[in-house]
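Note on ligand handling. Small-molecule inputs were canonicalized before submission; formal charges were left as drawn, and no protonation-state enumeration was performed. Where a ligand contained multiple stereocentres, the stereochemistry in the source SMILES was retained. For pyridoxal-5'-phosphate, this procedure yielded the string shown in the input block below.
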Amino acid sequence: MSSNGSTSSASAKLPVYLDNHATTPLDPRVLEAMMPFLTSKFGNAASNSHPFGWEAAGAVEAARRQIAAAIGASAQEIVFTSGATESDNLALKGVVDAFCEKGNHVITAVSEHKAILDSCKYLEKHGCHITWLPVQADGRIDLGRLKDSFTDRTILVSIMAANNETGVLQPVEEIGALCRERGVLFHSDAVQALGKIPLDVKRAHLDLASLTAHKLYGPKGCGALYVRNDPSVRLAPMIHGGGHEHGLRSGTLNVPGIVGFGKACEIAQQNLSEESRRLAGLRDRLRDRLLAGLDQVVINGSMEHRLPGNLNMSFLHVEGETLLTGLHDVALSSGSACSSGKTEASHVLKALGLSDEAAGCAIRFGIGRFNTEAEIDYVAGRVIELVKSLREVSALS
Ligand SMILES: *Cc1c(COP(=O)(O)O)cnc(C)c1O
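Structure output:
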């Protein structure tokens, strides 16, 4: 097989990484910002009696401001965690624990990330009532159904900003307004939205939001929970110890990770509109080529309310897993990356109303900052070629 894209003059360096919803490569500028804190500036941010500690604490506070600025929050509203899985757990369990007197009803949606779904299942086992909102065929929740789900025992609504499989954006500002009207807390898993689309916690009336560095060209193992301050959201900690992060999350801070997270937010914020236009252009180019080259292709989820770098498509009569195996020089995902160990049809695609079969034919394309037009053309060419040949084989059998 030629290493050049057959449909492009510029060559794509192989393998092509097109799985940017699972994780993103570290931006070299982020690494550069982190490097001193992995080497000479190794202090513990909690050491307040010497310059090593002061230097680390200063860097952490600067990063807190950068992250807060990216979501319209203030620095003291950012609580550092080990990633968004922990942030989701802290938000849900922390609110339920702190508000058990007031109520025990939580509203979420069936298309959420596993970190939300499994935390809610845990809470359900411990006496919480969970409303699992369905989503419409375009992947968005129905605001009327949300309105009808509130009870006088409702304490929290948790709805993600952008879906990690389909890229579908939820109407967070409208959801936030409904929650605020009723005095119910609103949490959003905003991992995929951060640095990709404008996100303002004040406009969306968010009380809590989960963030992670490694989905926006920062390091793995470093995340944050935005916790609204004025008036402050009551939250019970899940990890007890030295009382770091206002007692909400004990444990020595990951200083290099936090510095990288801050830098990643700053870069994303500075280039948001330009980068999102570029990614949407690449995404539309990929979509148009695939639609022109193949029939029996379905786009999953709303095209209008969607992350710029996301495309999720079902190539009917071709098993997604088989397609991925054939595309060994392209990194893609056939379902949720977090559950791709098992080959179950994606819960997100089934929530859109797809049959097991149509969901099994789905491929997620996640386009990111470092992808080029030549790579997109290469991938489009390879997918078209392979889908055609797999369909021929199955037609013969
Ligand atoms: C990746 C992801 C998470 C988990 O984040 P980690 O930092 O890897 O724990 C949670 N929610 C969504 C929507 C994600 O895409």
